[in-house]
Amino acid sequence: MLFLLLAGGAEVLFAEQPLHERPLMSWGMALGGALLGWCLLMMGRVLLYLGQHRAADGWDQAREQEWTEKMAQGRRFMQVLKVSLYTALRAPGQTPEAQVTALLEGTKVIKTQPSWRGEATRHSRLWDDQKKVPEENLLDALSLVLTELSETLALLPDDTPLAVMLESDSGLPEAVLSRLWHQAWSDSGIRQPTSEVQGRGLDGVDQWLDQRSEDRSLLLVVAFQVAPEQPIDTAEAIAALLLGNPQMPSASAPKAYLHRPQQALEASREAWICAVDQSLQWASAQATTIERLWRVGSNTQQEQTINAVMADLPMEHDHNVRHVDSLLGHPGKVSPWLAVAVAVQGIEQGIGTQIIFSGSSDGTEFWSTVVTPASAREI
């Protein structure tokens, strides 16, 4: 109507003859002018729409590309080439299969016994050899795990870089721990050049996957808790894991895949459930495919929340869940590595996908980690 009025007004103002002398032409000019204005307006609107649509498509493609890249980054994983684990369930000379079987069967070894300080407390010890001082027990434990790992490292080139993450929890002085570590390393015969990794715990793996996923270095994790400062309800344990990036060629086939661990953002049931769901998504796994759940490193304040999280998982809790702390005691800094090592050794015995709930002694952290068989994924 606006264009019709404008066209009619223009016809009245600029017509050379009176309108009554040529009414059909006047109406035709008015309608044609209105139609022309409407067409120009529609053309401008169409061009504006096409421009907005093209811009929106560009943003959609950019967001989709960013999402794809972020998902690919989140789904990075590490090959587990070798693990070694010693707890009170495995004495020197015994095979790891017996230890895994004992844990799966729920064998409890935590008990009241003399600690390294001499007082009787409820805890578990690596092996019952009270004739040796803690320094000798720790040196024996370090020598055992490094000797087992050296068998795999001997198959690799001597120039393969080896990044070492060492975590210790002990009442022994730092100078003594450093001396024992260097002595055990020297006796192991490992030839590869080493460098120290600054990260700690599963956060170190998370950082490695973000920053060094293309690195040709292997990651060697050694964690131990021997002669802890406060031995009440603790577990002496030592775990070692040899991890590698999937792109790096290896002389030995991977035992399993360690997927990106996911930490809960806060200490709430909803945040922990979100962490579990995200860890499953990183592993491209469904909750129904989980065959074992390992709980380790939690405290009494976390029990209720963990039980609520477990209730949301579709699995037989009574048969497929093992609470490591109730069997061995709290492993301290060894907690996540102990559980990963047990899961990998369980995979070697035919168990499938497993999930690990690990926490911290102060109850401030909760991590969910998925370990899958190497045969479950093509690289």
General description of the model:
The structure is a single chain. The chain is built from 11 helices and 13 strands. It is an alpha/beta fold and 379 residues long. It has 2 domains: 70 residues; 302 residues, Thiolase/Chalcone synthase (Peroxisomal Thiolase, Chain A, domain 1). Strands 1, 4, 5, 6, 7, 8, 9, 10, 11, 12 and 13 form an 11-stranded mixed β-sheet that branches. β2 and β3 form a beta hairpin. α1 packs antiparallel against α2, α4 runs parallel beside α5 and α7 packs across α8. The radius of gyration is 33 Å and the shape is elongated.
Summarize the structure.
With 379 residues, the chain is an alpha/beta fold.
Global geometry? elongated
Could you describe the largest sheet, including whether it forms a barrel? 11 strands, mixed
Structural class: alpha/beta
Query: How many individual β-strands?
Result: 13
H-E order: HHEHEEHEHEHEEEEHEHHEHHEE
Compute the number of helices: 11
User: What's the structural domain tally?
Assistant: 2
Q: How large is the share of residues in beta strands? A: 15-25%
Distance between the termini: 67 Å
CATH-defined architecture of the largest domain: 3-Layer(aba) Sandwich
CA-based gyration radius: 33 Å
Spans of 5+ residues with little confidence (pLDDT < 50)?
none
Mean pLDDT: 86
CATH superfamily of the largest domain: Thiolase/Chalcone synthase
Per CATH, the class of the largest domain reads: Alpha Beta
Fraction of residues in H or I helices: 40-55%
